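Summary of Year 1 activities. Much of the first year was spent building the evaluation harness for sequence design. The harness presents a backbone, in tokenized form, and records the residue chosen at every position. We chose the following record to illustrate the format because it has been used consistently in internal testing since the harness was completed.
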């Protein structure tokens, strides 16, 4: 975010050149603030590795890339996108003469971000202290501790609140709002003018721009005026809520996750009742309750009871999703804190992409399977869905769904392809949210009829179902069964009967599109009667093809020889056969496999490859770099995404009659997936080692005096080095080499030679 520069084009004003900040007129290497832009017409100078473009100053001004600056740039972007504040009204490191209200001593301090009255800064002139309306104090993020760290409540943040209060006091009586953050703790503050001495009290959130409809007194009528969440701030809020439960309440990470999820669904339910029935909100913290939080951490019994009542209604509305064991056990302090964090956001009006990303980040950090599950990195999940491109009339199944990444990405892909013009590119955040809200019933219908997930882990299947429910407001079709046994065994498993109700969709031979990342590892072998299911069909007849044998090589010609029944096999080999059996003729599959299965010379792995070639056409093979799995799953493993199409019986008969012929196969090796091993974003450099940049435009809305004004933001970004750049996020004129585009070119050039496209026009 800090790598971007921006400027506004607001209708009626023309293009206005950004004024340099107070610090931009001289070099300030000690502070690392913006250096002067080059003269008009000059080429922007190249950035050094330790520099980034300044989001606030705009133009071609740069700042040193420090930990504090990283937080400042992220917050500056949220001020624009979430709060509708024009960056031309912001100044970084604005100096103020501050008087300590207790000691009377004066000192010169700088405001991390000062926000001035809209339009009060004449072009080419410096802003005036008396025009400051809000201030932001930013600190670098504290080092992550290996021990559990607590979130500081407002009552325990006296030092931080006093720092903001001193600066607000120095700014003058018209500065009404303050914020303090270190990317972990976050406090909103409002000035309450008093006859004797102003008070600085907690605030649930800031109002948008200069919106006059926002009532800081917290009346019920005003709390319905909530804002869509910026993705950065939403992820921040989710993480703070979870960390409060984990650190302050002492719950394990997974238990904290479920408790937070219960509160989140209470929030979603409250919004639904407000939207559909016109009810007054219950999920809120008013001013008197916030004031009490400034004095002690006990929390509000009234707030806690309202949230508990909402969750009771949620359970009553979804009896098949929640049981008597789903209990909201958080104390008043935790429930009040979480309500304060989330109450001013409208989750229903927030981008589903942002909501899905925030949920995926939270679930990925706090739920880990113990049976070889490696949660698929989002960059791979999205690519697999986009390449297979599920259609509205096709059934999609993930038999190892884990937390539901493939299910959620399928829903988001279909939503953007079917009901968003040009995959949503060029739409303002507000318009995207409106379209998503409009078509959420369509998405729910598709999820209910066509999207299914199975997993052996009960906690992961619930997390996957809740993830679908968050996007569609309907529970997902995820069932706790042993996928290797279903449907012939495992009738005692909790999800078996529910899954069997969808036998016309998910029985073997019924699935159109299968996406999965099966568990890997010889340390979790499959043994016993389950293996017999892979050798013998339901009628007791031996299957003509199976991997569930011991394999060796003929001593004369080296060909594969099938031996006795295998007594133990790693699950990934069996899942290859099971997934192929699940597909209907002509069905498509994307599966993540360890590279060993596709390259090891041993007979056992060759037998799996031979099974694949006998039963399927190979559409594509895309080898992944190790970095996404290191960052997303914490494992060092080399994997390949294998894309297959199941042969029809006619196609197999023709092969038996005429022999198997050669056909083109698309193969790619992904070198960069947008991140390094530490999770830092990778950017493209030219032959001289300099970053490459792209000028782009983003359309959005800005609130000025409660009036919504369309705006166009010019953004200059570093080009992300990602061979798997997805369709939804890439710019329209994106011209970097990309695996998805190369595959489409492959189909155009060689489509007429592909055996499953005979008779089609490529």
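For this record, the design step produced the sequence shown next.
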């Amino acid at each position: 975010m800090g790598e971007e520069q921006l400027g506004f084009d607001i209708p009626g004003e023309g293009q206005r050149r950004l004024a340099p900040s107070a610090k931009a007129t001289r070099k300030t290497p000690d502070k690392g603030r913006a250096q002067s832009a080059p003269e008009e017409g000059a080429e922007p100078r190249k950035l050094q590795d330790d520099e980034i473009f300044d989001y606030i100053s705009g133009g071609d001004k740069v700042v040193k890339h420090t930990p504090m600056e990283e937080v400042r740039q992220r917050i500056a972007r949220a001020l624009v996108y979430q709060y509708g504040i024009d960056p031309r009204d912001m100044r970084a490191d604005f100096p103020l003469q501050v008087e300590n209200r207790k000691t009377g001593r004066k000192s010169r301090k700088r405001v991390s971000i000062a926000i001035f009255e809209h339009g009060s800064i004449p072009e080419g002139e410096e802003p005036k202290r008396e025009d400051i309306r809000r201030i932001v104090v930013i600190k670098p993020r504290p080092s992550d501790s290996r021990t559990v760290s607590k979130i500081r409540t407002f009552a325990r943040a006296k030092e931080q609140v006093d720092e903001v209060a001193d600066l607000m006091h120095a700014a003058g009586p018209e500065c009404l709002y303050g914020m303090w953050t270190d990317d972990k703790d976050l406090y909103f503050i409002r000035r309450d003018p008093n006859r004797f001495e102003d008070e600085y009290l907690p605030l649930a959130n800031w109002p948008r721009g200069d919106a006059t409809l926002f009532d800081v007194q917290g009346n019920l009528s005003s709390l319905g005026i909530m804002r869509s969440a910026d993705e950065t701030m939403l992820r921040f809020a989710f993480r703070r809520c979870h960390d409060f439960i984990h650190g302050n309440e002492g719950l394990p990470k997974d238990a904290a996750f479920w408790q937070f999820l219960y509160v989140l669904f209470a929030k979603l339910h409250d919004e639904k009742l407000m939207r559909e029935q016109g009810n007054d909100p219950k999920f809120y913290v008013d001013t008197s309750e916030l004031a009490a939080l400034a004095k002690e951490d006990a929390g509000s019994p009234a707030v806690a009871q309202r949230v508990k009542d909402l969750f009771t209604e949620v359970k009553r509305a979804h009896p098949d999703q929640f049981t008597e064991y789903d209990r909201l056990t958080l104390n008043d302090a935790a429930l009040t804190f979480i309500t304060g964090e989330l109450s001013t956001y409208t989750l229903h009006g927030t981008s589903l992409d942002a909501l899905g990303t925030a949920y995926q980040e939270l679930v990925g950090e706090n739920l880990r399977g113990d049976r070889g599950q490696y949660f698929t990195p989002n960059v791979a999940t999205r690519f697999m869905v986009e390449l297979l491109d599920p259609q509205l009339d096709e059934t999609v199944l993930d038999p190892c769904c884990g937390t539901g990444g493939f299910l959620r990405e399928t829903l988001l892909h279909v939503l953007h392809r079917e009901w968003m013009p040009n995959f949503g590119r060029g739409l303002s955040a507000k318009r995207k949210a409106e379209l998503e809200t409009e078509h959420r019933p369509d998405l729910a219908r598709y999820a209910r009829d066509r999207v299914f997930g199975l997993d052996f882990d009960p906690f992961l299947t619930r997390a996957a179902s809740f993830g679908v429910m968050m996007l569609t407001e309907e529970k997902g079709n995820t069932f706790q069964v042993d996928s290797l046994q279903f449907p012939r065994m495992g009738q005692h498993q909790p999800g078996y009967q529910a899954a069997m109700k969808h036998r016309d969709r998910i029985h073997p031979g019924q699935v159109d599109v299968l996406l999965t990342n099966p568990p890997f590892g010889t340390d979790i072998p499959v043994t016993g009667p389950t293996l017999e299911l892979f050798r013998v069909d339901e009628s007791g007849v031996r299957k003509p093809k199976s991997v569930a044998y011991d394999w060796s090589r003929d001593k004369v010609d080296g060909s594969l020889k099938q031996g006795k029944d295998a007594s133990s096999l790693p699950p990934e080999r069996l899942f290859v056969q099971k997934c192929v059996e699940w597909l209907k003729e002509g069905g498509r599959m994307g599966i993540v496999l360890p590279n060993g299965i596709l390259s090891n010379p041993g007979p056992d792995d060759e037998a799996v490859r031979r099974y694949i070639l006998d039963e399927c056409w190979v559409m594509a093979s895309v080898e992944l770099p190790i970095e996404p799995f290191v960052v997303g799953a914490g494992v060092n493993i080399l994997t390949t995404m294998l894309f297959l199409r199941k042969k029809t019986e006619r196609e197999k008969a023709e092969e038996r009659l005429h022999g198997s012929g050669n056909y083109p196969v698309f193969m790619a090796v992904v070198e960069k997936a947008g991140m390094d091993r530490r999770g830092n974003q990778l950017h493209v450099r030219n032959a001289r080692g300099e970053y490459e940049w792209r000028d782009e435009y983003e359309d959005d809305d800005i609130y000025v005096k409660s009036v919504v004004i369309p705006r166009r933001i010019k953004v200059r970004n570093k080009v992300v080095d990602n061979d798997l750049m997805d369709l939804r996020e890439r710019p329209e004129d994106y011209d970097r080499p990309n695996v998805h585009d190369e595959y489409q070119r492959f189909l155009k050039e060689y489509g007429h030679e592909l055996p499953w496209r005979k008779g089609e026009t490529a």
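The longest helix spans residues 253-277. Quantitative recovery figures across the full test set are reported in Table 2.
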